Amino acid sequence: MISDRPPLDIAALQRVGNQLGTNPAGIFQDDSGQRYYVKMLESPMHARNELLAARLYQLTGAPTLTYVRTTEPDQIATEWIDLDKRCVAHLDKRERRQAQRWLGVHAWTANWDAAGFAGDNQGVVDGRVLTLDLGGALAFRAHGDPKGKAFGTQVNELDVMRTDAGNPHAVKLFADMRPDALDEAIEVVARIPDERVRQVIVDSGGSRKLAEKMLARKADMAGRLADARSGGCCLRGEEGC
Known about the structure:
By secondary structure, the protein is of the alpha+beta class. It has helices at residues 44-60, 93-100, 103-108, 157-163, 168-174, 179-190, 194-203, 208-229, and strands at 14-18, 25-29, 35-40, 67-68, 75-79, 85-86, 122-125, 128-131. It has two domains: 10-79, Phosphorylase Kinase, domain 1 (2-Layer Sandwich), CATH 3.30.200.20; 85-229, no CATH class.
């Protein structure tokens, strides 16, 4: 989710910790003792892209850290919380099933880094599984490189995130999903009204072109769901495909 508090001035905070991921970052603390994890990204466009991804996750109900806007256009901040677990490998069966509910959201937003390079983009707080970093969603890779044509209108991520050996932590998390669980994960996205998607993207500073692309991706997912229910085989890797 995204906090409605005023933008943070990171220069006015005290740095109390170093980066944890691959982007330049640090842990900062305000006068009240609230801590934030702040990333310094490649460009303001990359930062806006991640905030927009957070808005779309919020629209679907998928749990994330709480994002806070900053006064610097190339920075992203999230409220710091102490995790009970942080690694796909450490999730128990119930937590894995909880995380799998959001496969459709990760796929729709092309969040290739949903599981994390080291399996560390999924964490648990009070029994709730959160996605910890959205920097690899939508039009940019986690390091800030544009995805270009790889971010198209077909949601190949529904297959890739369950089968691609190049993303072993995603495969570990999603490969064993049953067909009914896949249907439910797709429905999380497919049932969102088109106008709500369009409104969130435009109101968040995204382009109408991006809105139409995300609607096309949503329609692609809904089509796969309809094919599966009519007896077709729309997801690679399923029995009989």
